Amino acid sequence: MPAALNRSTARLVDPAQEDRFLATQLPGLRRDVLLVAGLVLVYNVVFFVVNLLRGPAWGLLGLSDHVVLAAAAVAVMAAVGRTPTYRATARVVVVGFGVYALVALALGGDRTSTGWLLLSLHSAAILCLHARLPFPVTAVLAPAWSVASLLAATTAGVDGRDLGTAVFLVATVNLVGLAAAYRVSAQARLLFAQTEALERLTTLDPVTGLANRRGWEEALEREWERCAREGTPLGLVLVDVDHFKQVNDTFGHAAGDRALAVVAGLLTAALRRPGDLAARLGGDEFGLLLPGTDADGTASTAARLLADARRARAGAPDGDAGSGLTVSVGVHATRPRAAGAAETAAAVSAADAALYRAKAAGRDQVADAG
């Protein structure tokens, strides 16, 4: 099993990555819960009608388990439509199992030989549902569901042969189903981890290890929408390496790449918050995305970056590509009001205009769009 997975639980080792995976499973989990709850509802309605037609000898107690379970299925279906997160939906599933176990043990009614086949098929449906849940949850709840069913059957006067058949069918379904659920759970998480790794490769710059332009644009769109929704500011810092072509011509492209890596390190060191992003936008141009940072904070970050670049230049040995390296910086802070490509493009253009003012004023300085 690859190191990305915990072998005993089939969960991703990285908790944050596991949370992201679970978030992708929420629509499917809701759909499967609705499907299984619908099957439970139909099952109990059908058997309620069948037992009702048997006449008064069946008794109200014999019908009550079907009524309670059908009502619980309806409640589960209603609750799932309102659950905001994966974990909330999973809790609904756990509560539904608890209700079933209590009803089955307290009001378990007649079990027939044909009923065991239905029970095993029902177990299979439950296991399909639990393939979307963390495997430890599946491994506990699915057998518990079957044990509760079998315990209920022992209170209904079932003979030994029928009960033995039931145990065999349900045990087989559980063993095969749990093995399948483990495999599905592990494979789904591995595929998710591999997909994320591929996505990271497509959004990273290979020279500096920073986000590339695609990663920058995706993050800008995402953070712009979030800031507009929450009413928070957003800062943009654009950085250009001055006379970078001369650096390449004088020291060679390998030295130029090392100089770009030095600038990338300076940008990374300037980040202060988890949502901040440093990116290489192309060639010798870089950017900082600072969600939640106002004009003063953005200007302070840009000033600190410029000071760090000057110290790095002063500390570079003579003849090194970094010894003559300077940067120009353009700054723009805004408070997004509405999401849209035109709005983000205007903000980037304002920062870019500030950057060119810094270059026109003599380079190695910061200019503000304000």
UniProtKB/TrEMBL annotation:
GO MF term (any one): diguanylate cyclase activity
Gene3D superfamilies: 3.30.70.270
Record key words, sorted: Membrane, Nucleotidyltransferase, Transferase, Transmembrane, Transmembrane helix
Chain ranges passing through the membrane: 33-53, 59-80, 92-109, 140-158, 164-182
EC number(s) per entry: 2.7.7.65
SMART domains referenced in this protein's UniProt entry, alphabetically: GGDEF (SM00267)
GGDEF domain span: 232-370
Cited CDD domains: GGDEF
Enzyme class: transferase
InterPro entries: Diguanylate_Cyclase, GGDEF_dom, Nucleotide_cyclase, Rev_trsase/Diguanyl_cyclase
Protein name: Diguanylate cyclase
